[in-house]
Design a protein that fits this description.
By secondary structure, the protein is of the alpha/beta class. The chain has helices at residues 13-17, 30-43, 57-70, 94-100, 112-129, 141-152, and strands at residues 2-8, 50-53, 74-77, 134-139, 164-170, 173-179, 182-183, 191-193. The protein has one domain (2-193): Rossmann fold (3-Layer(aba) Sandwich), CATH 3.40.50.1240. Keywords: Isomerase.
Length: 194
């Protein structure tokens, strides 16, 4: 069985200001580093085989902090873990973006379908590389939200900074274990074939 813990990066100044980050490379703020250390302390209580990350600075720095706590180096920075691109809306607030583009279709934005496929390709590649492994993958909120929605079979609303959302692959399907560091109850579990 493959287990993948999808960890959202810690907070950035843009998160705190409500700005859309997407693929913009924004560093962690001090609160984000503290969040990463707190999550790292929790993750250190479990055994992990490998640690990978998105190459974007906020995820890579979160992964480095986690790696120090769990005793693992970041072995790879995977493009498959990069956040959804928000096109011309990157760097502005949600409110500004919606006032400019009320339909929510920001020019140059990646579609949810593209990001879901991209994220599922990423977790399936990790499953192939580590078929019996426990993988920590530090990535981004929208990518995690869409992957978890696909796996559990219902819309996941929001992924909070520095939380863990976990999936397991067994019996030919992905199964949701926790979202936002909260266990998924039996009546809400889903299975998604790879």
């Amino acid at each position: 069985m493959t287990s993948i813990a999808l960890v959202r990066h810690g907070e950035t100044a843009w998160n705190a200001a409500g700005r859309l980050q997407g693929t913009s490379d924004v560093p962690l703020n001090e609160n984000g580093r503290q969040q990463a250390r707190a999550t790292a302390a929790i993750l250190a209580d479990s055994h992990w085989d490998v640690l990978v990350s998105s190459p974007l600075m906020r995820a890579a720095d979160t992964a480095t902090i986690i790696g120090e706590a769990v005793g693992l180096p970041v072995t790879e920075h995977l493009e498959a873990l990069v956040e959804r691109g928000y096109g011309k809306a990157e760097g502005i607030t949600d409110e500004e973006a919606m006032s400019r583009w009320p339909d929510g279709n920001f020019p140059g934005m990646d579609s949810e379908e593209t990001v879901t496929r991209h994220g599922m390709d990423g977790v399936n590649e990790l499953r192939r590389q580590f078929p019996t492994g426990r993988v920590l993958a530090v990535t981004h909120g929208t990518l995690i939200r869409l992957v978890m929605s696909e796996v559990v079979g219902y819309p996941v609303d929001h992924i909070h900074n520095a939380t863990v959302s976990e999936i397991h692959y067994s019996d030919g399907a992905w199964h949701g274990v926790q979202i936002n560091s909260v266990p998924i109850t039996p009546e809400h579990t889903g299975a998604m074939p790879s």
